[in-house]
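testing teh design pipeline on a random one, pls ignore if ur not involved
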């Protein structure tokens, strides 16, 4: 807890057995009140390791996708009374040691959301990010900043924090169930006039760290371009796609979804 705010760390997991324990061991439990992991029907021992570590664990009965995995995490965190939710990938690509810095920026009311950027201080290339991904990240970020009228150093990090107000306001149920979910979420945060802060974050690229392949990376890139254009059209009042419309659906934390618990949530 920090400044009387309950801090919950969520871990959207898929085949993370090799890195989960190391990631979990570096979480600052003097500040973090609870960790919730959602296993998206992994084929390895992710859920067994999570149980052994006494992590509150949810298991999807079938693979639903990265975005759907996050939705389950956020619903569980909100249901458990979280005031601040920090998403940490269990693949150890991002250091959990930055959780206190991220949480404090929201707990004291300075920001509504915070992202850990790999592009500040040039940590991405030093951490082993492939050059083509670095170039793509830079290009997409420049395009997005232009279309959204913002100035983030990157939009594609998987280490992020959100206040409860953000998660209850954004229409996340109507967002994508795959990787473009992350980008839609940031666009919606700006659309709803929330403030996003950034911290510099080192990154690590190694065989066990999760990463999407080239084909899915290309699909993701086109999805980013599409969301950026849809945002601009919505802001101009020319056309409002579903997630930018008033009828878009927010998360329903009481809704029955396709998962089962391996420990109580």
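output:
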């Amino acid at each position: 807890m920090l400044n009387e705010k309950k801090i919950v760390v969520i871990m959207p997991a898929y085949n993370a057995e090799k890195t989960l324990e190391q990631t979990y061991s570096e979480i600052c439990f003097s500040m973090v009140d609870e960790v919730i992991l959602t296993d998206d029907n992994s084929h390895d021992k992710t859920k067994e390791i999570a149980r052994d570590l006494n992590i509150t664990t949810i298991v999807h009965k079938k693979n639903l996708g990265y975005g759907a995995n996050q939705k389950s995490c956020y619903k569980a965190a909100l249901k458990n009374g979280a005031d601040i939710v920090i998403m940490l990938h269990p693949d150890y690509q991002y250091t959990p040691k930055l959780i206190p810095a991220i949480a404090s920026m929201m707990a004291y009311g300075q920001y509504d959301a915070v992202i850990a950027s790999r592009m500040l201080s040039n940590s991405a290339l030093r951490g082993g990010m492939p050059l083509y991904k670095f170039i793509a990240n830079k290009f997409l970020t420049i395009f997005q900043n232009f279309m959204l009228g913002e100035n983030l150093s990157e939009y594609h990090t998987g280490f992020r924090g959100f206040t409860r107000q953000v998660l209850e306001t954004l229409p996340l149920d109507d967002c994508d169930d795959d990787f473009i979910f992350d980008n839609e979420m940031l666009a919606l945060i700006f659309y709803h006039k929330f403030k996003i802060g950034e911290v510099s974050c080192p990154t690590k690229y190694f065989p066990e760290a999760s990463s999407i392949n080239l084909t899915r990376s290309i699909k993701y890139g086109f999805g980013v371009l599409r969301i950026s254009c849809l945002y601009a059209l919505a802001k101009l009042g020319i056309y409002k796609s579903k997630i930018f419309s008033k009828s878009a659906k927010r998360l329903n934390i009481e809704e029955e979804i396709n998962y089962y618990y391996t420990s109580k949530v």
